[in-house]
Specification:
With 164 residues, the chain is mostly helical. 66% of the residues lie in helices and 0% in strands. The chain has 7 helices and no strands. Helix 4 packs antiparallel against helix 5. The radius of gyration is 23 Å and the shape is elongated. The model has no long low-confidence stretch (mean pLDDT 92).
Amino acid sequence: MTRTTFASPDPAAPGLADRLIHLFTLIPHWLIALIARIALFRVFWWSARTKVADGTLFSLSDSAVYLFQEEYKLPLLPPELAAHLALLGESVFSILVILGLATRLGGLGLFGMALVIQLFVYPDHYNEHLPWMVCALYLAKFGGGFFSLDALIARWTGRKVAFA
């Protein structure tokens, strides 16, 4: 008669948690960076578009100035200047981020904008702003990834990293 024994699990064999962690390490940086770039672009570009007068590309609308006067009320800046700076920052930084051109600068700029929004405009909306900040900081730290103009410039110039 054959006797069956049940061996204890091999302590050297990876457990479920180890296997899951290994799977997460296989997610490439370029994919995370691309998703972060798209997410930030969508939020900030469309926010910039709400500040633009109908039928124009970059002319500030009266309603945008009104919001900065009556609702946002940023300290230290006149409402019209704050509205112009917000439109400029949201437009330029979001374009840089989606193109992956000077991605680190664009990410840092959008992080700064999200921080100002969080601290001075809508301090109770951290659930909305923290993901923006994480995406922006990720891009500021790691760059735009393989599918970015920064990486393309780095490949053309033979450098390890341009701004990627």
